[in-house]
Amino acid sequence: MIPLDELLVFSGLLFSIGIFGVLTRRNFIMLLISVEIIMNSAILNFVTFSAYSPSSSVAQAVSGQGIAVVLIGLAATEVALGLAIVLALNRIIGSVDVAKAMELRL
Amino acid sequence: MSLDLSPLTYLLALAFGGTLLTFFAGSRARWIALATAVGTLGISIWLLANFQLGLATDYQFVQVTHWLTLSTGGSAGLAVNYTVGIDGISLPFLLLSAILTLVTVIYHWDERKNPAGFFGLVGLTNAGLLGVFVALDVLLFFAFWEIVLIPMFFLIGHWGGTRRHYASLKFFVYTHVASVVTLVSLFAMVFLGNWGSMDFGGSISTADVAALNVQSIPQITQVLMFGALFFGFGVKLPMVPFHTWLPDAHVEAPTGGSVLLAGMLLKMGAYGLIRIAFPLLPYGHVAAEPVVLGIAFLSIVWGAFLSLAQRDLKRMVAFSSINHMGIVLLAIALWTQLSVTAAVLLMFAHGLVSGLLFLLSGSVHHTFGTRDIPSIGGITSRTPILSTMLIIGSLASLGLPSLVSFPAEFSAFLATWEALGWWILLPLFALVITAGFYLWMLQRLSFGPAHGIPEKARDLPFNEMLAMGLLVSLIVLYGILPYLIVQLIPHSAIFATQCFHGGSTVCATQP
Amino acid sequence: MSYTIPTISPYTPEISLLVAVVLIFLLDVAGVKSRILLGGATSLFLLLAFLEVLADLGTWPLQGLSTLPSGYLGTLQGPVIFTSFGLIFQGIFLAVALIVGFASISDPDEEGAPTFYALLTLAAIGMLFVAVSADLILLLLSIEITGIATYALVGYTRRDRRALEAAMKFYIIGALSTAISFFGASLLYGAYGTTQLSAFSTLPANHELALMGFGMVAAGLAFKATLVPFHMWAVDVYDGAGPNVAGFLSGGSKKMGLFALFVVFVAAVRVFGAAEGYVLFLALGSLAVITMTLGNVLALEQKTMKRMLAYSSIAQAGYMLLGVAIDTPAALAGATLQITADVLMKTGAFVVVGAAASLGIGPLITDYKGLGHSRPGISASFAIMLLSLAGMPLTLGFVGKFYLFFAAVEAPGYFILLAIAGLLNSAISVFYYARILRLMYMPDDSKAPASDGHSLTHSTLGSATGPATPRWASLRSEITAVGTARWITIVSVAVLLVLFGIYPTTLVGAMNSAAQQFWTIGF
Known about the structure:
The complex is a heterotrimer of chains A (106), B (511) and C (523).
Chain A: H1 4-24, H2 28-51, H3 58-93
Helix pairs in contact in A: 1-2, 2-3
Chain B: H1 7-23, H2 29-50, E1 60-70, E2 78-86, H3 90-107, H4 115-134, H5 138-159, H6 164-192, H7 206-216, H8 219-236, H9 245-252, H10 255-280, H11 282-308, H12 313-334, H13 337-368, H14 384-397, H15 405-420, H16 425-445, H17 462-480, H18 483-486, H19 489-498, H20 505-508
Helix pairs in contact in B: 1-2, 1-4, 2-3, 2-4, 3-4, 3-10, 3-13, 3-17, 4-5, 4-10, 5-6, 5-10, 6-8, 6-9, 8-10, 8-11, 9-12, 10-12, 10-13, 11-12, 11-16, 12-13, 12-15, 12-16, 13-14, 13-15, 13-17, 13-19, 14-16, 14-17
Chain C: H1 12-29, H2 35-57, H3 84-103, H4 113-132, H5 136-154, H6 161-192, H7 207-224, H8 232-240, H9 243-276, H10 279-300, H11 305-325, H12 329-358, H13 371-374, H14 376-389, H15 396-410, H16 416-441, H17 471-482, H18 484-502, H19 505-521
């Protein structure tokens, strides 16, 4: 079995990559992917902690995996909405570049 | 909780209700405003007639109704009540507020610029002022205190002179900042003093509160709290370093606004000092006395010299208010029965006299088109009534015997002599200057060769004459028979000044 | 293992709203685009849900109609818990949705109208679940349900470029903050082995992991609550969204974030506060002061009404954060009261901005010049809202601020400094509110002011003239121009502000006991 520490370091890395992407990318699709990477690091964490749960209660130990499934669904919903927004915006300004959408600065 | 309503509640209900009606009355606004003003004056006179002298309890017509309870850590919570009541100190202010409102309504009878708004705001000022003077609960007091600011802000800002926007904002900011400082200190007093409710009179006595304060608040904290309250109330007064909002506000305010501003709003500060800052923080005021006295002397002398330098009649009257309120502050600072009586009487007198003088400067302005003293002169021949009123007002202001200011200033100086001895020369010197600038103004304006009077200048119209006549008759009445108002005050002044010493038998019977 | 089959009766408000959503979708399919029908139906269902919540709270005159089994309050273990504190927030959220839903009836009919009402109702459902969550995951999921509905709500027309931009920004920030929150939740799950909020009230073995988890959850929620330094998005989003939607975000979605912060704090962070001493409270207090100061100072220099309101909304969030920074039941009650006040003031103010737009008034603050004379009804109501925002007495805004500052002074320790900072801030805020009042009621008219309010020539008694047009006629034309529903909303919000300002006794009593209970029992 993979040691707990390595899994945590891996999810921490995923989280950092996601944050880095959010901070540096200007393409909406890339931003979307970065946010999803953060979400996935959280999902990974839930599964990890569930697998290594010291709890004697089965319900508590398994709940992490249940949460992970729910979060995958949530992430999919979010992406669907994000794509809908970016499509509508693309139709108007003809670009998915966040830097081009700067009208809201007075 | 009881449903027995105090007459004071009816008074407030009438004032606020009448104001609300006035706002929506359109062209009939002035009649409703007049009815409201007469009604509040009527109730005030009824209160005066039914006010019992020499009772063992200080406050009368008390009503305590539960408003809300604030939860505090552990204990039963802090009650905030609707508590109203009056004593001999607040009653003269109620009368004064009602009188000046009536006078303002009469004087501005022909107001053309949005009369409903104007009369409504005047009524709202009156209602807020009445609230300040009857409130016996910290929060209620503060709420009414803030309410007064709003109509005055609009009165100056909408009906004022050319620089009205600047003046209204300056007025609002100065007084609002002062209020905020006041509020912190009031809260601190309630909590650090372990009050069970926010009442500072009525259900618990001043003596109890003061005793609580002395026991539970460290002296240095008391001094700090007193400093904050003194600043907050002093800006309103105004005391000298913080007086600069006053001339601007006065010069730009419409005449009626000036009357209420000088007549009543300045009194709120002094009333706060007498009612809250001095009696409830006994250690604080003893420690701060030199500073308070210093500021009082500074205000007196500085105000007098500044008035002397003014060319604008209204500005001159405004600065002389600083001088007069300095004497009031001096009298409060001495904090004896006599001096507090004198302070209240002085404020009553100043309310009537400065009201008259501001009406006059308004009339001078629209009769002659200017308020610049040197550019007009000899108005007696063309406008004898206006000139006569001006002479009476000026003489009253400089303290001529048989006019209302005389007994007030006399008792204030008597108290000063008793307490401070030869320091009295300083205010007396200022009094000479005051007399000097009023007489000089009269010499240039009323007498001498006529010049600078426009062709169409006519004497006072009926409504202005009525308004001024009302004030003049009161000035003379209370000048000749000062006991009519003086008799109310000393008894309450004892409660205010001596209870916290704990030695007085009067206070022991306080419920 | 034994299961207790949950009764559905406690969920009547949520079920009512679900029925409403289904109904709206059906109407959409049937081709109904009329706002009167759709908005009327939505408002009715929202009102129904609101009354159900009031009944659950046992409010007069609905006492005895509660759908909660007796003894439910604060005792149920599981993902859902019905505390009176949560129920009060359910009421607050429903009130926001009701104000926005009813006011928007006056918007023009359009293709997207059914979408708008469906999304609004969906967002309200999410909020209702936020208020009763006893499990961190359910809390965050409910927040995201509301989040997804509101991202779409901002850009629901799909044509307005500014609205779409706002939707995009809101979406990115919202999704990011949710992801961060969930990451924090996963760490907490690791530290505690469960996500039940009640379990968080003990110190875990792995102290650092839990602290990091709480930090991340709180940071994610701070985005929603527009606390500095996570506030940047709010201004752009409120500016770009339609006024009604902005009102919903400021009044509803933001308050939801604050509520979640309260919950997480009461459930858990207090434990660390006790362990770490004053550091945590100092940090929270400083954050509150920084938020209100920055919001107020930046609001000072804004030129458009919406951005000004957005910054003032950020400042208000600072005041509300005091509720947990001070760490007493009184402070929590005060914050709840302030939230209630702000819901009415801010949502009402944004509805007024919408009304002004429908009157052809531009977005700039200076465009409101002279409104007081041309449109007396909405101007007077707006003036009351602004005075309430500035904390003037006899309005609910004063009661809320007063209670908060009271709590700060009353609490032991350094908290009096917070009260002073708050009071100074409210003094700053008076500047920009007073400026609008001055513009509305004292326009710099070109004609010279009459000297002393008098003209040079006198007229005799009785010749004064009133305003030229009769007041009621101008009021009637105003109602037609603004739209009846919107006008009624604006005026009733103002009336409520004053009514509760004069008689807050019942409201304060309910919040006191709810906050006390929540504070001492928790989950």
